[in-house]
Amino acid sequence: MSTNEIATRDETAVATTNQAHTAPEPTAGSTALMAWAQEADLAYQMAQKLANTSFVPTTLRGKPGDITAAILAGSELGLKPMATLKSIDVIQGTPALRAHAMRAVVQKQGHQIELVESTPERCVLRGRRKGADNWQTVEWTTARASQLGLLGKAEWKKQPQTMLVARATGELCRLIASDALHGMPYVAEELGGVAHAELVPDKAPLSVAALTAPASAPSTGTADYSVERETEPAASDGAWDEDAADNSTDWPETTQPGSAA
């Protein structure tokens, strides 16, 4: 074999080896996934700092992982992180938008929503997609809510008007702009049955011992100052000591016992 043939064979082998080790060009999908992973990492760092603050709803407080998921989901809906924390709740393991937030997401994309009527017994909402001519109308009444067994729930008893608006909001937004909700089609009020979805854990019932136990004196904390006063034992007949009262520096002048106010 000639020297030229050997050189040609070596060059071919090197070229083949280089091609085999060349990394494939990133696709649009992989690039987007890498960007999302970086965003998720930043969101988690933010969630760790916010997890125990009062800005986080009770359903998410102390759960940085859930807060991260909420922030990422809110980002897909066009919500900023702090707005997300006041707009998304996790109800029985399912993330949901609050009614006011769902209307905001839909309206931000140019769709129209109008409140036609709202009373404690009836709510009528209408809406239409951006560029559409026809309006969709949704009506929720207490009769309809009663058929679903909703009126017995606490929030329906306290504020039926708000709950009717929330139900109508969820139904209307799904009709005219389901694509804007990105897999979050229900309002929190629908899933949890509570206005604004601030869930408060039930307190344990009080026992008989707890009800009959003597109340403990409330703690007053550390005082900024103290006044020590030396006094003689009070007279056994309980009579007012005029001299002690007149010479006391603890009473304001205008409230001396026996003096004019």
Explain this structure:
With 261 residues, the chain is mainly alpha-helical. It has eleven helices and five strands; from the N terminus they run ααααββαβββαααααα. The strands form two sheets. It has a three-stranded antiparallel sheet with strand order 3-4-5. A hairpin with a 7-residue loop joins strand 4 (122-128) and strand 5. Helix 2 (28-50) crosses helix 3 (64-76). It starts with a helix and ends in a 14-residue tail after the last helix. The relative contact order is 0.08. The model is unreliable at 196-208 and 218-257 (pLDDT under 50).
- Fraction in beta strands: 5-15%
Mean pLDDT over the residues: 76
Total count of helical runs of at least 4 residues: 11
Helix proportion range = 40-55%
- Using only C-alpha atoms, the radius of gyration works out to 35 Å
- Give the N-to-C terminal Cα separation: 126 Å
Which residues sit in consecutive blocks of at least 5 with pLDDT less than 50? 196-208, 218-257
Largest sheet: 3 strands, antiparallel
By secondary-structure content and strand pairing, the structural class works out as mainly alpha
Total strands: the figure is 5
Topology as H/E string?
HHHHEEHEEEHHHHHH
Numbering strands along the chain, what is their spatial order in the largest sheet? 3-4-5
Categorize the overall geometry.
globular
